[in-house]
Amino acid sequence: MSITERIKGMYFSWLDARGLQARDGQKQMIRFIANVLRQEQSRIGVVEAPTGTGKTIAYAVSTIPIAAAKRKHVVIVTATVALQDQIVNKDLPELRTCSEVGFSYVLAKGRQRYVCPLRLNLAASATDVQALEGLDGAGKASQRRNVGMKYVDLMSQFRQAKWNGDIDDTPIALESSEWSTVTTDSRGCTKNACSWYSKCPYYQARDQYQKSDVVVTNYDLLLTTVRHETDLLPAAQETIYVLDEAQHVEPKTMSTFALSFSLEHVTDRLPTVASTFSDLIKQIDEETLVSRCFTKFNHAHRGARGLQGELEKLLLDLDFGKSRERVRRFRFPNGEVPDSMRDVCAQLAKEYSNMVEAIVETTDFLKDKTQNERVFEASRVQAYLDAFNSATGDLEDWAALLRDFGQYQQDAISSRWVENVSELRGVEWRLKSVPIGIDGILKEALWNRAHGVILTSATLNSDDQFNHLKSVLGLDNDNETLVIDSPFDLRKMVTFNVPAMDTTPGADSGAHTKEVISRLPELLALERSALVLFTSKATMDEVWEGLPNRVKMHCLKQMASGKHALLRQHKRAIDSGEASYIFGLASYREGIDLPGDYCLHVIITRLPFDVPNDPIVESKDEILQNQGLEGFQKWRTLMLPDAILRMKQACGRLIRSESDTGRITVLDRRVVSRQYGKQILEALPPYRQEIE
Q1: CB-CB contact of 143 with 81 (8 Å)
Q2: Residue 604's Cα: distance from chain center in Å?
Q3: What beta strand segments (E) does 554-620 contain?
Q4: Which of the four, 107, 113, 149, 271, has the lowest number of CB atoms within 10 Å?
Q5: Is the dihedral of CA 70, 72, 74, 75 positive or negative?
Q6: How far apart are CA 62 and CA 47, in angstroms?
Q7: Rounded CA gap, 391 and 439, in Å?
Q8: For residues 602-636, b (16+ Cβ closer than 10 Å) or e, as one string?
Q9: Nearest-CA neighbor of 38 among 67, 75, 61, 15?
C-alpha cells in the first residue's frame, strides 16, 4: 500500500467512524503537508488554517503514515495544555482505533512533572506512621490532612502500582510547594546510582519518549532540550516536527534563551552554600577532598565579592531613565556593553565558574560515596545534594549572563539592559540579555537538522505572503506556504463595527480612556457576554474603576483570579442566564475557547501595537535603523506585522463553530483613519463591516 493510500485510508476511516463529511480546507491541508514532506530537500511548510479547518486531524493523518514509512518519529508541539489534552486524549486515540496504520503515542513532560520516588520515600518515612495507626477514625482522618500523611498515602499508592508517579494523574492533591519537596531536577538526580532508578517514573517515561511513534509536548520542553542539547526527545534528524500554535515560536525561543542576573540574589545565596560546606565537613571523616573544594569555593567567593563591588560602581554611573512602577532601566545601545564593564563581567563569570567546579566536585564525591559505601543516611545525602545542586543552577545561569555581557559577539544579536529596582529593603540590580536574532538559533537546532517541519496556526500570515514570519524565524524564502480560507460564512455571521469617536489613543490616551469608559456600558448591554481586550493593565484597571457599579458587577477582570477559574465563573454565569463580561490583556487574545453564548461580542479597546519603550522593541528598532530603514518604513516593518496578527487573534475569539454569530467592535479610529489601519482591515477575514 502506497503512502497516499495509507493517508487516505486513515482519513476516510476517521470520517466514517464519526459520520462526518470531508472538509475542503482539511483535504487541502493534508495534500499540502504530504507534498512538502515528500520533497528531497527543504521539507519545511507553513500553513495558516483558520478555526473550523480541523487542522489537528489534517496534520496527524498526513505526518503519521509518512513517518511510519520512513521510520521517523512525529513530534507535535503546542503552546497550551488544552490542545495537548485534546490531541492525546481524543484525536490520536480516535485515529488509532479506526485506522489500519498502527502507531504508539505519548505525552512528553518535564522532569518536575514526575515524582522522585527517593524523595517521596524520605518524606513519607519522616512521618510517624506508627503513632497515626493508633488513632481513632476521626483523629486519623484529621491527621491525614497534614502534608506528611499525604506523602505516606502517595508512597503507598506508588509501591502498590496504583499510581504511576505522574503528578498530573495524582490520586491525592498537593500544593505546588508540597510537590517541590518530592520532585527533582537534572542536577539533583543521582541517576543510576539511585536505589529507585529502575522504578523511577521519569526515566520510565523518558524511555517511552524515545520509542514512541508520536510524541506530544510543549514549546518549553522542546526548546529547553535544544538549549541544553539533551537527548530527552527523539533526535531531530529522525523527527518530523509539527509546530502547532506556531505564533509562539519566536517569544518562546527568546524566553528560553534569555539570561538574567540579580546582584541581591547572589548576596543572599552564596553564604548559604558556604555554611552547607562547613556542615558537611563536620559530618564526614574523610574530609580532605571536601575541604579542598571548600577552599576553592571560598577563594572564588572572595574574588566575586570584590568584583561585584566594582560592577555596582559601574552600574551607578549609567544614565537611567525615569522610574516606571519602581523600575529604572538602562539599555545598552546596539547591545554593546562598555569595555570597563565587560572586563569586570568576564572576570566575575570566571569566579562563578570556579565556584561551580568546586560544588560539582563535591556532589560527585557524595554520589560516589552513596553508590559504593554508606557514609550516612540517604536523607542527609539528599539534603546536601539538594542544597548544592540548587546553588549550581543559579551559579551556572549567572555565569552564562556575565559571559554574555563580558564578550562582544558580532554575530549574536541580543538586547542587553540593566534594571534598577526599588524594593522595601533597598535597591536591586538586575542584568538581562535576550536574543533578538533567533533565526540563527532555530536554523542550527531545527530547520537544518530536522527531517521535516510543519508550522501551523490560525494566525501566521501578516498579509505579506509570510515574509515577516520567515524573516523572524530564519526560514528560507522558498519554503512552501499555504493559506486556507475559513469554512464559515463570516460575512453573515459577524458584524465588524468601528463607531465614530471623538478621541484616538495616539493623540490623547487619557481622553480616549475616558471615552472608552463612557461607551462601554451601552456596548456591553448589546449582548449578555463579551470579551473586552486591553493593551495595558493600567488602562484596564482605570476603565474598570470608572464603570458604574451596575455594570461592574457583571464584569470579570483578568488577574482577579486565575484564567481557568475566571473562565469557569464566566461560563457558570452565562449558563444560569446572567450577563458576564471578561476584561483581559494579551493572553486572552488567544488560547481561550468561548463558543456559542459564552462570547457574543469582542470589544478591542485599542490597536495592539508593541510598547515602543520596551527594551526588546527598542533593540529591534535599532537593528532596522542600522540597516538603513527610517520613519514609516521602519515602523511598518517592525510594528505593523505583529499588530495585524494580534488583531486576527483577537477577532478569532468570536467564531468557534459554524453555529456561532456575534459582533466585533473596535474603539480605535486609527483602523480607518490611518493608511496602516486600512492595511489591518484588509488582512482581517471578510466580516460585514459597519464603519461609522
Answers
A1: no
A2: 24
A3: 555-557, 580-584, 601-604
A4: 271
A5: negative
A6: 13
A7: 32
A8: bbbbbbbbbeeeebbbbbbbbbeeeeebeeeebbe
A9: 67
pLDDT tens readout for residues 677-689: 999 999 999 999 9
Q: All 3 cell numbers of residue 242?
A: 509539527
Asked if 341 and 85 count as a contact pair (C-beta separation under 8 A), the reply is no
Residue 168 contacts residue 183 (beta carbons within 8 Å):
no
Spatial separation of the C-alpha atoms in residues 27 and 453, rounded to whole Å: 19
170 vs 114, 153, 154, 301, CA distance in Å? Answer: 10, 11, 8, 42
Q: Residue type at 263?
A: L
Q: Tens of pLDDT along 78-136?
A: 998 889 999 999 999 999 998 888 899 999 998 888 999 988 888 887 654 444 444 34
497: phi then psi, degrees, rounded to nearest 5: -120, 135
Q: Specify the residue for cell string 509570510.
A: 466
- In this structure, the number of other CB atoms found within 10 A of the CB of residue 383 comes to 15
State the SS3 of 128-164: CHHHHHCCCHHHHHHHCCCHHHHHHHHHHHHHCCCCC
Which H, E and C letters describe 76-109, residue by residue?
Answer: EEECCHHHHHHHHHHHHHHHHHHCCCCCCEEECC
Cell triple for 141:
482522618
C-beta neighbour count of 12 within 10 angstroms: 15
- The model carries a pTM of 0.90
